[in-house]
């Protein structure tokens, strides 16, 4: 024996089911999406470059934010390494590399020498390397391009995914 | 006096981009090997202006036989320039060159450069094996011209997308001349050309 449900109830329930399955999942996915590693991002990376107050003589300000994928919460104490071809050295040079930690708001900044065009574009490199960070997020390498070679700042956002 | 003007114009067209690049501010922040590889690239591009003119016999005071000998010599120089360019960049930043050669670079211009490089190798190989490979002369020429066009177009796109040591006016000027020179020989792709 089957219980017969009124047709309207079936329609309503079905619609509700469709709404929950069809709409809330995309809504959750539309939360803060993780940043993907960029092609060439890891080029000339130096694993474990030391944490420094400033790279070389400074003059160029690299800033950024590190957020958690999904809810977008800031990640404090995330270790970010940055390097570039600058007025003081090539990318592969040890002196062109330095790391820093994010503050409580997930912000970081580094005073570094002016980035100059190399290999065709003025660009920086930044890394969040899970090997050198206890935060438990997945490694991400970025290679942002400056909109102009005369820019003296570059702001970069990391959205990290739980490993 | 006649015939001096084209040669002088050619000398200026070749020298100007090299001289202008010598004043690039970027040079002060580059090591010798990186600077050398950049100039090898510019020098190689200037030869792309010369090659079709030599092949077509457009240059005054050069007999066809002589023009062809110079064309071979210039081709050898071009091959050496490309090798210097790529090896120098490899020494400067190995991972960037590996990305370029494997077509996984984030920079589209490098792919065009690599395409042009392979076309230079193929054109040089064709020239080296000309007597040993039994291609009909017409087939050989059409293939060699096709490679020359790939080299010219690939190089120009490569160069225009790069923010490097080349000065803007001479970069666009040389690009236009290289394309015009390539157009000069493009009709030879047709099977029934003289």
Layout of helices and strands:
The complex is a heterodimer of chains A (163) and B (194).
Chain A: H1 7-29, E1 60-68, E2 79-84, E3 97-101, E4 107-112, E5 124-128, E6 140-142, E7 153-160
Parallel strand pairs in A: 1-7
Antiparallel strand pairs in A: 1-4, 2-3, 2-5, 5-6
Chain B: H1 4-21, H2 32-56, H3 64-92, H4 94-101, H5 108-128, H6 137-160, H7 168-185
Structure description:
The complex is a heterodimer of chains A (163) and B (194). In chain A, 14% of the residues lie in helices and 26% in strands. By secondary structure, chain A is α+β, with helices and mostly antiparallel strands. Chain A folds into 2 domains: 1-30, no CATH class; 60-160, Protocatechuate 3,4-Dioxygenase, subunit A (Sandwich). In chain A, the strands form 2 sheets. Chain A has a 4-stranded antiparallel beta sheet, with no helix packed on it. In chain A, strands 4-1-7 form a 3-stranded mixed beta sheet, with no helix packed on it. The termini of chain A are far apart. With 194 residues, chain B is an all-alpha fold. Chain B has a single domain (4-189), classed as Four Helix Bundle (Hemerythrin (Met), subunit A) (Up-down Bundle). Chain B has 7 helices and no strands. The chains are: A alpha+beta (163), B mainly alpha (194). The A-B interface holds A 38-44, 85-88, 90-92, 116-122, 143, 149 and B 26, 28-31, 34, 89, 92-93, 95-96, 99, 104-107, 109-110, 161-164.
How would you sum up this structure in a few lines?
The complex is a heterodimer of chains A (163) and B (194). Chain A is of the alpha+beta class and 163 residues long.
- Total domain count of chain B: 1
Give the count of helical stretches of chain B: 7
Sheet/helix structural class of chain B: mainly alpha
> How many domains, in number, for the residues of chain A?
2
Q: For this entry, what is the oligomeric state of its chains?
A: heterodimer
Q: How far is the N terminus from the C terminus of chain B?
A: 31 Å
CATH H-level superfamily of the largest domain in chain A: Aromatic compound dioxygenase
* Proportion in β-strands of chain B: under 5%
Shape of chain A: globular
The rough form of chain B would be described as globular
């Amino acid at each position: 024996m089957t219980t017969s449900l009124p047709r309207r109830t079936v329609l309503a329930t079905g619609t509700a089911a469709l709404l929950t399955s069809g709409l809330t999942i995309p809504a959750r996915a539309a939360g803060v999406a993780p940043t993907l590693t960029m092609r060439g991002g890891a080029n000339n990376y130096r694993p474990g470059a030391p944490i420094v107050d400033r790279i070389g003589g400074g003059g160029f300000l690299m800033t950024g934010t590190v957020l958690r994928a999904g809810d977008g919460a800031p990640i404090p104490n995330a270790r970010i390494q940055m390097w570039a071809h600058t007025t003081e050295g090539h990318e592969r040079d040890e002196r062109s590399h330095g790391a820093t930690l994010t503050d409580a708001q997930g912000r970081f900044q580094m005073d570094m020498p002016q980035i100059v065009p190399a290999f065709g574009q003025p660009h920086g490199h930044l890394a969040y390397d899970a090997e050198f960070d206890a935060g438990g997020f997945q490694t991400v390498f970025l290679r942002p391009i400056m909109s102009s070679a005369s820019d003296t700042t570059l702001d970069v956002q990391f959205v990290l995914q739980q490993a | 006096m006649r015939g001096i003007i084209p040669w002088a114009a050619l000398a200026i067209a070749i020298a100007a981009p090299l001289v202008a690049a010598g004043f690039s501010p970027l040079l002060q922040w580059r090591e010798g090997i990186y600077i050398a590889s950049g100039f090898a690239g510019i020098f190689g591009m200037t030869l792309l202006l010369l090659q079709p003119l030599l092949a077509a016999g457009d240059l005054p005071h050069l007999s066809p036989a002589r023009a062809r000998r110079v064309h071979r010599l210039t081709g050898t120089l071009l091959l050496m320039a490309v090798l210097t360019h790529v090896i120098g960049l490899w020494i400067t930043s190995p991972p960037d060159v590996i990305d370029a050669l494997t077509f996984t670079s984030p920079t589209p211009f490098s792919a065009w450069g690599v395409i042009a490089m392979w076309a230079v190798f193929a054109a040089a190989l064709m020239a080296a094996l000309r007597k040993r490979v039994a291609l009909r002369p017409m087939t050989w020429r059409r293939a060699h011209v096709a490679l020359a066009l790939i080299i010219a177009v690939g190089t120009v796109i490569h160069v225009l997308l790069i923010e490097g040591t080349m000065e803007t006016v001479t970069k666009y000027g040389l690009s236009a001349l290289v394309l015009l020179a390539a157009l000069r020989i493009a009709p030879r792709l047709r099977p029934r050309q003289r």
